[in-house]
Amino acid sequence: MCFGRCARCIGFKLLILALLSIVANILLYFPNGETRFASEHHLGKYVECLHGILGGGFLVLIPAAVFIGLHNDNCCGCFGREDCGKSCAMLSSVLAAFVGILGSGYCVIISALGLSHGPYCFTHLQRNWMYPFTESSGGYLFEYNKWSECQEPRNIVEWNVTLFSILLVLGGIEFILCFIQIINGILGGLCGLCCGHEEV
Question: Which family does it belong to (predicted)?
């Protein structure tokens, strides 16, 4: 399979995943579609980390754009030698893939911490805004009867668990795709694009 076409395919997949991550992170800011909790600063600390917007979003869009444009990039011909230039471009894509690894890794870590820590909510027991599930180390995820402790925002546990889980999965897939491109970029750089002769 052509290394350049593989990179382009990975780029389009990363583009879609990055856009989905941005949307999921934005939704975290507006539980049940309400804006008042964000304006009143009643959001959890992991919601405000921008892990889906910055990490799984913009930092993954960078390598996505590089990979998509890589198929026709010959790195200025590398002193007039097209094969050398394409190898140079493939090797440079490895650096972009590392940026994607950092962004998606950040998204995965913050999502996992957000799931483990639990939501920030107004509880009926303490009559205050707090993190009621911090001590459970994620055990609350399987104790559905305790989710009703959070009164405001309504259904915040379900909202956070769903969106943090989505971001965790999206970040994990992005991480794997960027890792695949590191291998693809190294192989493409060392061996040259196998379809280079076909395109000429």
Answer: Belongs to the L6 tetraspanin family.
